[in-house]
Amino acid sequence: MKEGIHPEYRDVVFQDTSTGIQFLIGSTIKTQKTCDYEGRKMPLVTVDISSASHPFFTGKQKFIDAAGRVEKFQRKYNWGKKDEAEPATSEPKPKA
């Protein structure tokens, strides 16, 4: 291999933030964080989701409502509020 053009390949610990599970994987990713893994000080990369927490691999579905998007949609389109709507009149309302 040609010297000086390839990134450093090393063992790196990837930690799933939702489950806390750690994986030791070879990688060229750069990070400033470190952790103790089986008695050795290793570079650490945190990830939001991995095979330990993804519903496809775990078989469990988590419902995460990101900032009330469901309620926002329901308010915007008056979804699910058919019973509370104004009573129907014989005259149609003029469109603005």
Q: What would you note in describing this structure?
A:
It is a single chain. This protein is an alpha+beta fold. It has a domain at 10-62. The chain is 14% helix and 26% strand. The protein contains 2 helices and 4 strands, in the order ββββαα. A 4-stranded mixed sheet has the order 2-1-4-3, with no helix packed on it. A hairpin with a 2-residue loop joins strand 3 and strand 4. The termini are far apart.
Rg from Cα: 26 Å
How many individual β-strands? 4
State the secondary-structure class. alpha+beta
Percent of residues in helices comes to 10-25%
Features:
single chain, 96 residues, alpha+beta, four-stranded mixed beta sheet, 4 strands, 14% helix
Could you give a short description of this structure?
With 96 residues, the protein is an alpha+beta fold.
Topology:
Blueprint: E1 10-16, E2 22-27, E3 34-37, E4 40-47, H1 55-58, H2 69-77
Parallel strand pairs: 1-4
Antiparallel strand pairs: 1-2, 3-4
